[in-house]
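Exercise: predict the structure of this protein bound to acetyl coenzyme *A.
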Amino acid sequence: MNSICYIAGLGTSVPHTTLSNFDFEKIMDTSDEWIVTRTGIKNRHVLAKEQNVSDIAYEASIKAIQDAKIDKSEITHILVATCSPQNLSPSVACLIAEKLGMSSVSGLQTISPKNPSLVCFDFNAACSGFIYGLELARAFLMLHRNATILLVTAEGLSRRLNYQDRTTSILFGDAAGAVILRDHGDYLYSVLDVSIGADGDYKDLIRIGGGTEWQAKVGDRIDDTFFLSMQGREVFKHAVRGMTQESFKLLERNHLAISDIDLFIAHQANMRIIEAVGERLGIAKDNVFTNLEKYGNTSASSILLAMDEAREKGILKKGNKTLLTAFGAGLTWGSALLS
Ligand code: ACO
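Solution:
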C-alpha cells in the first residue's frame, strides 16, 4: 500500500503538576476505588498557574522537529487540533509560530515571491482532533507535494473543568503532542488511510463554554455553563459504536481483517470504553495499548501520548499495522491506519 503521508517525527509534553485520585478525595465526595473501577484513571497532569497550552504545544513541537531531524525553516504548515485553545484568537498555531521564531524564515519580514508563506490555524474536532488532523494533512500534501506539516494537539481542559462536578472533573488532564508529516524523506510510520465522521444532532452530549454563546458583560460572574459538561452514559454508548464502526469501515476499505492488526490504540478516555471497542472489533487484548491511568483523558492529545510511550517501549513499530481510533464532542469520530 502506497502512502501520501509519512510521520517523520513525534514529540509530546505534559505539565509537571499532577492531580491523583487521592487529591480528588480531598476536595470532593469520590474515591480512588470508584475512579479506577469506572474509568481506569489514576493520575492526570494539569497546567500550572504560570503555564498555558502554547507552552506545552511548543515543547512537543520542538521534540517532533528534533525527532524528524529537520530545520524549523522547512515547516510550511502549523495545524493545531484543540478544543481548549489559549484564546478564541489568536490561534494556538500562531502562538507556536511566534515561539518557534518562524517570522524570521517565513513571516511578514521575509515575505517575497520566492519564499513559501507559512500557514497557521487551529481546528476543533475535540478528542478526534489528531485523526482529523491526519486527514487534513493528507489533503494539504496532495495539494502541495513539498509541504512539511507540523500537526500539533494542544489541550488544557483543566482550565474548563468544574471542580465541583465529580462526574466530569476526575476524567480529564492536560497534554500536547506533535508530529511532522511529509510525503518524502526518512520516516517513522506511514499513514495508510484515514476515515472521519461527525453528527451534530448529538451536540449537547459534551459542551465546553466560553464562546460567543456566553453573552458576558464586564463584571459578570461566570456560571456552570462556562465549564465542560457531559452526559457520560450517552457518550459512552455512542463512543463505543462510533469507534467500532469507523474502524471496521477502514479495515474493509483496505482489505484487512482485524487479525492483520498488530497494535490498537484508541482515544484514552475510559478503560471500559476501550475494552468494549476492543471486544467488538475482536482484537487480541495483548495488541491493545493504553496509558490513560497516568494522564486521564487528554482529548486530542491522548493518542499521541500513547503512541509516544508505545514507541519508546518498542511496541509501536514501523512496518507493523497499527489501528488508531478516536471519538469526541460534536459528536466527531475517526480511525486511521499506520504502518
Ligand atoms: N465519584 C463517586 N461517584 C460518582 C462519581 C465520582 N467521581 N461520578 C459519578 N458518581 C456517581 C453518580 O453520581 C451516580 O450516583 P447515583 O447512582 O447515586 O446517581 C453513580 O456514580 C453512577 O453514575 P454514572 O454517571 O451512571 O456512572 P458511569 O458508570 O456511567 O460512569 C463515566 C461515569 C465514567 C463518566 C462514564 O459514563 C464515562 O466514561 N462516559 C464517557 C465519557 C467520555 O469518555 N467522554 C469522552 C469524550 S470527552 C471529549 O470529547 C472532550
